[in-house]
Amino acid sequence: MTVVILSRGAGGSTKGAALIAGTTKVRLTSLPVSQSTASEIRPVPPTETPAGPARRRSTAAKALGLVACLGALAVVLLLSLAIGAKSIPPHSAFDALFHFNGSDDELVVRQQRLPRTGLGLEVGVALGLAGALMQALTRNPLADPGILGVNSGASAAVAVAIGFLGLNGTLSYIWFAFAGAALVSVVVYVLGSAGRTAATPVRLALAGTAVTAALTAFTSAVLLLEPDTFDQFRYWNVGSVVGRDASVIWQVMPFVAVGAALALGLSRSLNALALGEDSGRALGARPGRTRALGALAVTLLCGAATAAVGPIGFIGLVVPHLARFLTGPDQRWVLPYSAVLAPVLLVGSDVLGRVVARPGEVEVGIVTAFLGAPVFIALARSGRISQL
Amino acid sequence: MNSASTVRDSAPAHATDAPVTRRPFRVLRIGDAVSVRIRVRSAVVCAALLTAVVAVGLYTLATGDYSIPVPDVVRALLGGGDQATHFVVDSLRAPRLVTGVLVGAALGASGAVFQSITRNPLGSPDVIGFGTGSACGAVAVIVLAHGDAPEVSAGALAGGLVTAAAVYLLALRRGAMQGFRLILVGIGVTGMLTAFDQWMLTRASINDAVTAQIWLTGSLNGRGWAQAVPLAIAVAVLLPCTALLSRQADLLEMGDDAARALGLRVERGRLALVVLAVALVAVATAAAGPVTFVALAAPQIARRMTKSPGVGVGPAAAMGALVVPVSDLAAQRLFPSELPVGVATGAVGGVYLAFLLARQWRDGR
Fold it and tell me: Are residues A127 and A24 in the same domain?
């Protein structure tokens, strides 16, 4: 919705459309936010319809792209094994995995770097899929576990677990993180989707931020009443793949696996949903069922990721945008691309965090915030917010 | 989102249900030079709120670990009374109370301005992230420089102003600013600063970290006249200026085009309002830390009490001035160990927020 103000240019001629177009200045002035971009979501124009050979070629290109992304992932994983406080040549890192001989280097790789790399991979897949799924379900390009408040729910629950119930160790508060994440994702969606109207991007982001603010105050109260709790909590809350028990990987694996399977299985229904409620239903999609299953998958994935490594923001936000940029709006490609690109970014951020502050490290959650926030701001500035 | 209600609730609705003799506005004239239009209901609500502030203030000064009868409190405030009473009232309780009232007034007024500019009841400075900027500056001073109280306040002031400038400039696009973009850019910047805060917290000793966490919550504990007086001067300058410009905020709520058509220089007016509102938040945060939700809730509660179409700066400031001391009182007295005021405002704000969103839900807006 824009107001078009036409004013005559130097020629002043109004003879014929072509001439007008050539000599007039067209100024576009956006109407106030409540009537334009923020509160409306237009259906995605059906962009992928090229038939026959063109389509097959593009499918081949997309598949090739996915293979390239997998290659990038393999490189990043190897780097994660090789780079750190003690640099280890990539070939030794490789040997440590497959021809273990017990040298110091190989012990470092096996005991220190392998668990964090594995955890980064797992959490990355979960966050990437969760982000893509959230954005598709809410048709909201700003959806992300951090911005929608899911992380703050997990944080609050963990603070309660440490503070009031005296639990310690990641293994014991993982379930609380789960419950908190699940509860808050429901609350935010209900608050943000506001009855008859659709859940608009801005409204969901606001509901998430506001819930985060409320929960932060609560968490803070718990922490200040119990300084010991705070001492434990601050290391969890920063979002890090270091110092987590290696068995966490196996503990959250089932949830990530089920969530990922659900997410990938929903991709066709999500495509139908992207056309809007009515058109989707006409095409045979069941919006209610898709939303419910999608919400379940999001909760499993986000909850598992946050429980395993603490709150990590912006990965779930940025990666799906990157994926859509590479593949177009087809969810059957967006979801797998997100699942591969997210661990590239997450493990890459972890490696970067080891390099920038040598000999110390910067936690991965901080690196991703500093990489992701500029992208978020660029998105907000670009004015493409409602186009999903 | 707000605009719909603004238009719907405005004058005609009141005109029909109010008798002709009780006009909603009175005009106050002093000579020929001054002529002010006053909304009767808003004025009454403001007066009631300020009375409540005085009552709460007296109660706060009189009660606590050491009870003092109210007449003695008044005598101590006027400079009399015995030495112990004078010490408790004048050195311990009064500066804290004054700081609380001023912080609340500043946050309420600034929240009203921001909600007008962003045209969104949720567009308050703490959601936009100016509070986070101040907090980040303060935490940096606490953790990295081990600064004392005045240095921490200076850090907060600097952090808040720099962040606000950055958010405003990033939200500009082709010289124009839209409310929703300001909010979103603010959310992004908040995410980044929060991560930085958390990183600093993990690097700090546990003592510094607890100090910083208390600061991050917003606290009035141990505030003396050294904090209260500069804050009072700043608020005394900024609040009247904001009130004078608030007419422009009312026009901006109608939308840029309508405001422009009514003769407002939109970008200039908005910039002036943003600068004033940011300055108010920054001085309040420098004094007490980022006290959450006051800027969000006070203007909206005041709007419902005054039944006015827009969020007024005056009633919002009065409401804020009441909310903060009451919350501080609750946080001091209700818990086994004393909590910072931000915890109480956060809890109140959370409930209020659920109410606000649920209401929008019911209205289907």
Answer: no
Instruction: Supply the range of the domain harboring residue B54.
Output: 46-363
Same domain (yes/no): A240, A137: yes
Count of residues making up chain A: 388
- Does residue A44 fall inside a structural domain? no
Is-contact A372 A317, C-beta < 8 A? Answer: yes
Q: Which two tokens stand for residue B11?
A: 């004058």
| Averaged pLDDT for residues B117-134 | 76
For A174-190, the DSSP string reads: HHHHHHHHHHHHHHHHH
Look up the pTM and report it.
0.72
Indicate the number of domains in chain A: 2
Please name which of A80, A102, A82, A79 lies closest in space to residue A92, comparing C-alpha atoms.
A82
Do residue A221 and residue B346 have CB atoms under 8 angstroms apart? Answer: yes
Count the Cβ atoms, other than its own, within 10 Å of residue A129: 31
**Tally of CB atoms within 10 A around B82:** 10
Rounded to whole angstroms, how far apart are CA atoms B326 and B345?
9
State whether A217 and B343 contact (CB < 8 Å).
Answer: yes
Residue A163 lies in domain = 65-382
Q: Residue A50 above 60 pLDDT?
A: no
CB atoms within 10 A of CB A20: 16
CA distance B105 to B239: 8
Whole-angstrom CA distances from B32 to A2, B28, B37, B240 are 45, 11, 14, 21
CA–CA dist A254, A240 (Å, integer): 21
Q: Is A16 on the interface with B (CB under 8 A)?
A: no
Q: What average pLDDT is seen over chain B?
A: 79
- What's the pLDDT tens digit per position in B287-323? 888 887 888 888 888 887 887 777 788 889 999 999 8
The pLDDT, as a whole number, for residue B108 is 92
CA–CA distance, A377 with A383 (Å, rounded to integer): 11
- The CATH number of the domain holding residue A217 is 1.10.3470.10
Residue B278: which CATH number?
Answer: 1.10.3470.10
Q: Which residues of A touch B188 (CB under 8 A)?
A: 373-374, 376-377, 380
The reply to whether residue A205 touches residue B183, judged by beta carbons under 8 angstroms, is yes
Residue B24: inside a domain, yes or no?
A: no
